[in-house]
Amino acid sequence: MTTRITALGLILGGALWAAPTFSKDVAPIFNRHCVECHRPGSVAPMSLLDYKSARPWAKAIRDAVISRKMPPWFADPKHGSFSNDPTLSKADLDTVRAGSRTAFPAPEGPSINTCFPGCRMPARTSP
Ligand code: HEC
After folding, report:
1. Best mutation site among 31, 34, 95 for ligand 1, i.e. most ligand atoms within 8 A of its Cβ?
2. How many C-beta atoms surround the C-beta of residue 5 within 10 A?
């Protein structure tokens, strides 16, 4: 029985640690693909330069990258692929999606206390 609970704890713990964190996983993607527009004084309405400004936008960011509305790309893919294509790779998309699902775990590491309304809090296991 104890073994069972420990194993479950390890699985849940592993899943939490695997969650992308803002500074380590998500910020480099934003820096490559988003902040050229999403910075104070640029064309986009909000900054994605740091955790504090990006976090309230977690849900909108999730929607925008899943629907591929962001980053905007106006060239028509039927004319071939472009070397400066800003589209997110599948891996980057997955990272942003996973990170935004938990409203971006805090910069210092995954946190189970931050969650935007509507997202699911991880189940609490042992005391
Ligand atoms: C070429 C400039 C540019 C780039 C690059 C860019 N954005 Fe934007 N973004 C905009 C502009 C302009 C708006 C406001 C107009 C709009 O909503 O279409 C916007 C709006 C948004 C919104 C609000 C959408 C909504 O539905 O209200 C989100 C979220 C967003 N961007 C996320 C991102 C993310 C994440 C990236 C990188 C993966 C990114 N953007 C890259 C220019 C950009």
Report:
1. 34
2. 11
Global pTM value: 0.71
Q: Which amino acid is at 82?
A: F
pLDDT tens-digit series, residues 33-47: 999 999 999 999 999
- CB-ligand 1 contact for 72 (6 Å cutoff): yes
The residue contributing the CA closest to ligand 1 atom 13 is 44
Distance CA 96, CA 58 (A): 9
Residue 11 has pLDDT above 70, yes or no: no
Q: Compute the half-sphere exposure of residue 54: CA atoms within 13 Å on the CB side of its CA.
A: 27
Distance 121 CA to ligand 1 centre (A): 27
